[in-house]
Amino acid sequence: MTVISTHKDVEALTLTFVAEFDAGIAQVWQVWQDPRRLERWWGPPTWPATFDRHEFVVGGQSRYYMTGPEGQKARGWWTITAIDEPHRLEFDDGFADDTGEPVDPADTVHMVVTLETAGAGTRMTTLTTFANPEQLEKMLAMGMEEGMRLAMGQIDEVLAGALR
Residue ranges of the chain with pLDDT lower than 50? Predict the structure, then answer.
């Protein structure tokens, strides 16, 4: 599995994932930049993602949904807040309604993804910051930690060019 550590810090309102891949930084960057690659791993294996929109620029909007085993759809949105290609990506992430638009733009988490060289490969650190302790606990109760671990576990397959 690619995730080598997770750390929940209730005091700092953060959840951090560290993953390592046997691929260069530019290749790992593509799993975020390219919506077709992104949807092959964003979401656990039983909840695959589909990105309807992915504007990979600062201020850009992404709209996606994950489809569950019974056909149910969980929708989400991103607003990209910073890009330092190919080393850093920041975005706000929240729940969306049936049209893909934010349910509550104030109910977001902020994610920071950093990529750095680790030996012959790449270390990806994903830091999620929550608005308050209640939001952190709600997201953990919904399975965010395990879901992200399973989702990131699919990146090696994407990097290898295998289809889901």
Answer: 1, 162-164
